[in-house]
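Before going further, learn to read the protein records used in this course. Taken together, the tokens spell out the fold as the letters spell out the chain. A record is reproduced here so that you can trace the correspondence yourselves:

***
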Amino acid sequence: MRYYQYLQNGTKHVGVEDDAGKITDMTALNSQIGSTLDLFNVASITGSDIDSVTRGILAANPGAETVSASEFFDGAEPGKHGATLLPPVDAPEVWAFGVTYMDSMRERQAESGSPDVYGKVYDADRPEAFFKATLDRLQSPFADVGIRADSGWDVPEPELAFVTYGGKIVGYTCGNDMSSRTIEGENPLYLPQAKVYDKSASLGPALVSKESIGDAQQLGVTLVIERDGKEAFQGQANTSEMKRDCEYLVDWLVRHNTIPDGTSVMTGTGTIPPPEFTLTEGDVVHITIDKIGTLTNTVVVV
């Protein structure tokens, strides 16, 4: 099952997509389900999972109205008059891990005047973790993502992101970790400025439960960047290429560090455009991950 959060007629809703590609408005069936975190709360109380909770609500409301996923997404695109998609979880904190793929380590070494630090962290037991965003800084699907006006080399980073509850992984979504390679390349200590700025993070479109995703370390990740209606870059990776898997990363994140429920974590990228490529305003970024869907954002200068 895939879960969406969206605004319709000024009200927030949770929708669930079944295996047939039909979306049901869960909030219309049960007004107490106003967010995906509400589903996780019920699952925690009942000792189950959100798919089981959802199936129970659907079973109690046979014949509930549905809409096809294609129609739902068509109406959610800019300029249309359907639902407005939101990040699929109200993540109070968003964290990110870097140097989890060999290609990422090599690219960051190539851009940096201090390349040794990236090789050392790739080989170390302790992963590189950094704070990325808060909920009010998160960009929704189809919303804008930013490149800094004081940077000349900027890229999106397509990443599998996991969602936590009680400090454990409970679901997954797509993440876009926008980055200034110019700033990070000048000095690794500039990482926060290269990573944390206006419109620098996006999550979506769907949240998929841990039970539905299956093996999170066997997911294809595709990045497509369009410029003036044409494909400017396309690249692929697979989460099987991660040196540190998701469970390893969450274990390190919660060591001596309490995170609130809904905290979402980007897990690094294995797809990086070549050095001669940089994002420009108006580019459209599509990040697709198996079993989750496609996160689409348009680039603006901030």
Observations:
- The two ends are 36 Å apart (CA to CA).
- The mean pLDDT is 94.
- The chain has two domains: 2-86, 93-301.
- The longest helix spans residues 36-46.
